[in-house]
Amino acid sequence: MMAIKTIGLKKIFKSGFGKKIEALKNLNLEIKKGETFGYLGPNGAGKTTTLKLLIGLLYPTSGNAFILGENIQNVNIKNFVGFLPEQPYFYSYLTAWEFLDFYTQLFNIPQKIRKKRINELLHLVGLKEKHADLQLRKFSKGMLQRIGIAQALINDPEVIFLDEPFSGLDPIGRKEIRDIIFKLKDSGKTIFFCSHILSDVELICDRVGILVHGELKAIGKIEDLVETKLKSAELAFSGLEEEEKEKIRHFCNRMIEHSDKTLAVFNNRESVNEAIKIIMENKGALLSLTPIRETLEDIFLKEVTHDGQTT
Ligand SMILES: Nc1ncnc2c1ncn2[C@@H]1O[C@H](COP(=O)(O)OP(=O)(O)O)[C@@H](O)[C@H]1O
Ligand SMILES: [Mg+2]
């Protein structure tokens, strides 16, 4: 059984003047239990729409989706799904404790275990006891995001949806969120999160999907999407006469001279080999060869620009 499965999921919004926006075009997706999935795409790609469909905040125009085998039309799924919205709304005069306690009541969590659950969650998201009695208006953006995640976990859900959990955070805040996601992953939860911050995704996802204009353009493990073949290579050398350097300059992409050292960038293996041959034959010194591989960012930009969409 898949944690999340969508079959031809589609959402069309009708705006004024009969204009239609195809926010999600025909999504077929299968996410295994325990998987951490990064759902990537530029602004307006349809990521939030997908999440809202999956957790039942929006109705699909057509298609179907299942969470742990249950049709998403079934309100029961709320019991094993957690959700951090893109811009969570916080009751700023409640303390962290009161805020979480409010959600334990919404979920009818028995009185007996409420206190324990809240303490566990505060600990999980790295908030200290002293924060429990602090009003949310005094929380930093990073702390609010962590309280938001605690709220999403209040019902101990199997499947967790996080909409842009890293947005607006500094590097430390992002690392803290990453660490929480790692902990959830370790405890076997299925995590589906949207992001446009690629560097955070590469570190934590088992697989990613790239959504552009409502269409899933690519899906897979990052190492499968990102071709392992060299995109380019950078060669550093010294000890060549101007004449030999000129030969290399002819077929390299770029050459930078730095005192007695020369850096040349090539975009294919043949050129690299040819340059090494020239360096060796002329008794030059090969200082380093650095492969430059394709990154997730390259794939992302390729998919986005193919489509003529900019962020
Ligand atoms: N309630 C709505 N009514 C009309 N259009 C909407 C609505 N929600 C989203 N859209 C449109 O659907 C598209 C996808 O939006 P969204 O899912 O929020 O993208 P993302 O989360 O990837 O930035 C956008 O063009 C957006 O303007
Ligand atoms: Mg969004």
Question: What does it look like?
Answer:
By secondary structure, the chain is α/β, with parallel strands linked by helices. The chain has 2 domains: 4-223, P-loop containing nucleotide triphosphate hydrolases (Rossmann fold, 3-Layer(aba) Sandwich); 230-293, YebC, transcriptional regulation domain (Alpha-Beta Plaits, 2-Layer Sandwich). Helix content is 35%, strand content 30%. The protein contains 11 helices and 14 strands. It has helices at 47-54, 96-106, 111-124, 129-132, 141-152, 171-186, 198-204, 222-225, 242-251, 269-281, 296-306; strands spanning 4-14, 20-31, 36-40, 62-67, 70-71, 81-84, 159-163, 190-195, 207-212, 215-220, 230-238, 254-258, 261-266, 285-293. A 6-stranded mixed β-sheet has the order 6-7-8-3-9-10, sandwiched between helices. It has a 4-stranded antiparallel β-sheet with strand order 2-1-4-5, covered by helices on one side. Helix 2 (96-106) packs across helix 3 (111-124), helix 5 (141-152) packs parallel to helix 6 (171-186) and helix 9 (242-251) packs antiparallel against helix 10. The longest helix is centred in the middle third of the chain and has 16 residues, at 171-186. The mean pLDDT is 90. Residues 47-48, 86, 163 line the site of magnesium ion. Magnesium ion (MG) binds at residues 47-48, 86, 163.
Q: What is the CATH-assigned architecture of the largest domain?
A: 3-Layer(aba) Sandwich
Global geometry: elongated
Total domains, how many? 2
Indicate the proportion of strand residues: 25-35%
Helix tally equals 11
Overall average residue pLDDT: 90
**Uncertain parts:** none
Q: According to CATH, what is the topology of the largest domain?
A: Rossmann fold
Q: How far apart are the first and last residues' alpha carbons, in Å? A: 36 Å
Annotated CATH homologous superfamily of the largest domain: P-loop containing nucleotide triphosphate hydrolases
Give the cofactors and ligands.
Answer: adenosine-5'-diphosphate, magnesium ion
Rounded radius of gyration (Å): 25 Å
Structural class of the secondary elements?
Answer: alpha/beta
Using the coordinates above, name the CATH class of the largest domain. Answer: Alpha Beta
Largest sheet: 6 strands, mixed
